[in-house]
Amino acid sequence: MSVGIQFVGGPADGTLLVIPGDPMDPPKVYDEIISAQTGCRLAYRRTVNPGDDGPLWHYVYEGEEPTA
Asked: 32: domain range?
């Protein structure tokens, strides 16, 4: 199964992505994007979709996490 997500805020703002997961309960945090500038992971947390985007989940930027 897979689920559509959209990033809100931060370097990946507006990016749409399809990831593996349950469409009704996707991962609470997505941190698989590596910043090209810093080499750190970009952390995004799942939030309620405020619009009428269907099954699309929004993930709000929380900051960077070291990759080491």
From this structure: 2-65
The pLDDT of residue 54 is 66
Give 9's Cβ-side CA count (13 Å radius). 13
Angstrom distance (rounded) from CA 9 to CA 25: 22
| pTM given for the model | 0.84
Q: Considering its fold, how many domains does the chain have in total? A: 1
Tens of pLDDT, residue by residue over 31-56, are 999 988 888 999 999 997 666 666 78
CA quadruple 49, 32, 65, 12: dihedral sign: negative
Contacts of residue 66, defined as CB under 8 A and 6 or more positions apart, other chains included, come to 40, 41
How many Å apart are CA 26 and CA 39, to the nearest integer? 25
For residues 59 and 30, the answer to whether their CB atoms sit within 8 Å is: yes
